[in-house]
């Protein structure tokens, strides 16, 4: 990866950590699931408002490291306005990207999420980045029990 690209990615993670998007409790959410990553201590609650297939609103609360906060902030921004199946497809692409199963990162498929691709070089941080998405997956499947990455 080019150095300046890596710097840009770090800047996006910084920005979302300092200034998380959609960081609020949602009134009357259709889905609400807690996620926990005991390895790092990242905790979040994800809220979704659904209109049929459409995810019309997404927000979160919680506390975690910079990577987990940036990841859930970016995720809520990206899934808003997407259908549930589009969000599920993004979850799978993101998972493959961060676990390195996918050789090339499909930049056009993941968009801004590519900023988190760097975690694949730090196996201990992968769960920080994927916690939000595992929690989303549970919320979309309407599982109510808390999610733990362990
Ligand atoms: Zn973490």
Question: Which structural category fits the helices and strands?
Answer: alpha+beta
CATH class: Alpha Beta
Number of domains: 1
For the largest sheet, list the strands in their spatial order.
Answer: 3-2-1-4
Helices, by number, come to 5
- What is the CATH third-level topology name? Sufe protein. Chain: A
Q: Indicate the mean pLDDT.
A: 89
Report the biggest beta sheet as strand number plus sense, adding barrel if it closes: 4 strands, mixed
Q: Approximately what portion of the residues adopt beta-strand conformation?
A: 15-25%
Radius of gyration: 14 Å
Identify the bound ligands.
zinc ion
Low-confidence parts, pLDDT < 50 over ≥5 residues?
none
Shape descriptor: globular
Description:
The relative contact order is 0.21. This protein has helices at 3-18, 66-79, 84-99, 107-110, 123-140, and strands at residues 31-37, 42-51, 54-63, 147-148. It has one domain: Sufe protein. Chain: A, CATH 3.90.1010. The termini are far apart. A hairpin with a 2-residue loop joins strand 2 (42-51) and strand 3 (54-63). By secondary structure, the protein is of the alpha+beta class. The protein contains five helices and four strands; from the N terminus they run H-E-E-E-H-H-H-H-E. It has a four-stranded mixed sheet with strand order 3-2-1-4, covered by helices on one side. 45% of the residues lie in helices and 19% in strands. The structure holds zinc ion (ZN). Zinc ion (ZN) binds next to helix 2.
